[in-house]
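Hi team,

Filling in the usual template for the complex we talked about on Friday. All components are listed, including any nucleic acid strands or ligand strings, so the model treats them as one assembly.

SUBMITTER: L.P.
PURPOSE: interface mapping
COMPONENTS: three
RESIDUES: 976
SEQUENCES:
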Amino acid sequence: MNIQLLINGISLGSVYALIAVGFALIFNILKFSNFAHGGLMTVTAYIGYVASLFLRNYISSLPLFFATLLIAALGGGFLALILERVAFRRLRNNNSPVIYYFISSITMGILMENFITIFASSNFYSYPPFLPASVIHYGNLSVAIPDLLMLFFSASALSILLFVLYRTKLGLAIRTTSFDVNTARLMGMDPNAVVAATFFVAGILGGLSGVFLGINYTLYPQLGQMIVKGFVASVIGGLGSISGAVIGAVLLGVVEISLIWVVGAGWAPVLIFFIMLIFLLVRPRGISGIIVQEKA
Amino acid sequence: MEYLATTLTFTGISLIGVLGVYLVTGLTGLFSFGQAAFLAVGAYTSAVLFKNFGLPLPVAAIVAMLIGLLAGLLVGVPTVRLRRDYISLVTFGFGEAIIATLNNSTAITGGATGLSGIPQYTTLPVVAVSVIICLAIVISYKNSKYGRQCLALRSDELAAKSMGIHVERLKLVTFLLASVMTSFAGVLYVFYTTYVEPGSFGWVVSAEWTIIVFVGGINSLTGAVVATILLTGLPELLRFASEWRIVIYCTIVLLILNFRPSGMFGEYEFSPRWVKKILSKGAKIT
Amino acid sequence: MRKVTLLVLCGVLVIAMTILGGCGSNPSSTTAKQIVIGNLQDLSGPTSVLGNAVTRGVELSIDKINKQGGLNGSQIKLVTLDTKGDVQEAIKAFNRLADQEKAVAIVGPPISNIGIGLASIADAKKVAFVGSFADPRATVTEDGKVHPSMFLVQPSTVQYGEIMASYAVEKLSLKKIAILYDQSNAYAVSLVNPFKKYAQAAGATIVSEEIYSKGDKDFRTQLSKIKDSGADVVFAPNYMQELVITAKQSRQLGLTMPFLGALDYAAPFASLVNDPESASNIYFANNYSDSEPQLAEVRNAYKVKYNEDPINKVYLGYDQMTVIAEAIKLSGAATADKILEGLNKVKDVQGTTGILTISPDNHQPVGLSMVMYKLENGKYIDLGRYIPEKHKKQ
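RESULT (copied from the run log):
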């Protein structure tokens, strides 16, 4: 296969990876698929856009890029906190079955998408050019600088995340609570705080993803529907595994690009569906997931 | 008046779709994001057969339902073995795959440009009769042995299995019943709107139906019916606030989820017994 | 139980209100001396920019006509309904306009899906639906018969596709053509087919044909293939958002050949790409030219009212109303069937987009040329009107 294709696939995969990790984080701790993450990405992307419009009079280019990222990330974190409070806190207190979280998250996702449609109209917007639209050419291959940056950011965000999860007290708390909420509480941890912290982190990741998506694909209210790719990537990688989500995402990116090359973009979704089906039947726990025996 | 007839017809068709979701999600606890794809299967099959091959409408309709059954088998057989979360993913993928196939088969289906020029055979009486028949089917299914087994399955799959319930076969049967019904709704749909395009059958439609079932209360068939009428009629009512319509819709759902998680109707079912109670006790209802 | 009764009552109330809302809303009281014209546009959906523009164009035209005394002594009243970009909604709205509001003619959207979807309904209701839905299936059935109620007031996609093909092959002498389009986009598909036919008949070869589907945002694979195919021009008749992404990605991949497209390359495409180097070497045909005199009045009126420059859809809306007004003049009356009659006779009317003559055979304009534009370094350059020999009025 073409090296250029591989490069394209990996860069696509790194976009998916950031989404998948934000998604997997929530799944890890609350055991449900958070479809509101898509809406969150969209909203934070727009927050970043507004911020960049405002700031472009003062700074430009690379500093503007970082500032936008920062604002979007923080915005995402806080939005996620609000989301947790509004959509999921009560369900947790009521001990509602998992299904309800699911429905709640989808509804929140649709809600956020529509808020954006109302306030920003269905038209699409473009971020101001942050970087001299630059490409590195190496022989016949070309890599876009924004893609490289994204890969870099995804990788660093993920390593920081893994570091936090496995080397800090907070990470320990998160992992414990995800294992068993009640025992964690018995041990003196405050599950509410832990859940809130997790959402905050997921929100930051969502903010970053939102901005990157917006740069690559322009800003429009349905931007959040990319969450489905994140879901697929998480499933392939093994629901509940962070590193699995990353691997799954990159794999998905590469497979998608190759399929498009081979059968064209029309039939690619059909083939992806079949591949996924076979994959799930053959190895339902994903690449690095753990088997969780479903009791109900 | 025609305006009202149009709204009622659409509501009726949606209701049949919701009934399908009720069977699969409410009764059996499976999350299917591809139900709308069966709508597409039914619609396109009957339209193509009618238009390009000149088959009479009843024959086309029956063939469409059979194809719906086949499609249900194709998706259902592998799906019923999977974990709950995966079912939504697979059915979603199925929906998207169907849409992609429809888009690609330009020669037969007109691809993205859609199929037009289909005569309008569906009328309000036809839809009304169909709704009643489907309701009857669902009610009898729910009250039968199958229905009770489904409920057991939904509450605790492992326990149901240990009681000897053939879990996978049950899931498949329910799923197939839903797919056939939804395909039929698709036939009604295409012969009413006289035009179909692949884009109207996405996962959002399936998600909307699932939400309706939840708002009505998964344990209550009456809830599903009333919720459909409300949530299909409400948008019309809220036409003046058309932008905010979906926001209001979502807010209602969230409120119900948070404050009345069992849905609007909870465990309640409309039944002849209840009517008798009212009539006999008069105003004193407990 | 009481809670349930309450809920049931609420439900009944809602149903009752819906019924009332549906029937009782008095069709906006029309006094005897008013001509009701309907307007069906996407005001809040994905193409709302276009829908709002057409509406403004129509309103400007009606303002002018009303100020000059109206038509046949009556003032014109415009009733606008939102289709939200959805065919189902459009069907409901059309029925409402025809039955309740008693519109005698309805202005349509520049969206082919809606045109095609409504064609048989418009015929059944016998109310003229005058729009810019360029897919020929909106005006002509598949057996070649014309839809009696459907009228198109801009070149059809067949004509447009041929104009672009002719420009590429005959004017720019580019013989190796690649095509990139969204196969789930009816508009794009109906442009590609006539383009291909004309180009091949004129001696060009299609060296690559790449597709993508709705919702796809990454075209690098397709663009790589096109790059490898050795094409010297790419035809990409897609929606603006995808064109913006395509422009960026093709630059990333190092594609240097010119791009040809459709109306979606018009403003505000250049400002959305935000990068002068990507917004270069692009050709497309537009409906109007700012240098032509007949536009000045409309453009100034628009600028005064809305403080911005009008886009092409504004002019289309304006012309659609002009054509309806002409039909009323020609047939002498403002009833639905008279307007249908009159529309079949519209000939040589000066519109903002050119001289309009509607063919009674296919209800599409005859001999309507378009203005070629080139996008260079983010700036639009007007190249003047262009019409292939084949299209010239005999």
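MY TAKE: Chain A has a mean pLDDT of 82. The interface with chain C takes residues 2, 4-5, 8, 12, 117, 121-129, 133, 135, 137, 142, 144, 216-218, 220, 222, 225, 257, 260-261, 264-266, 269 of chain A (CB under 8 Å).

Thanks, L.
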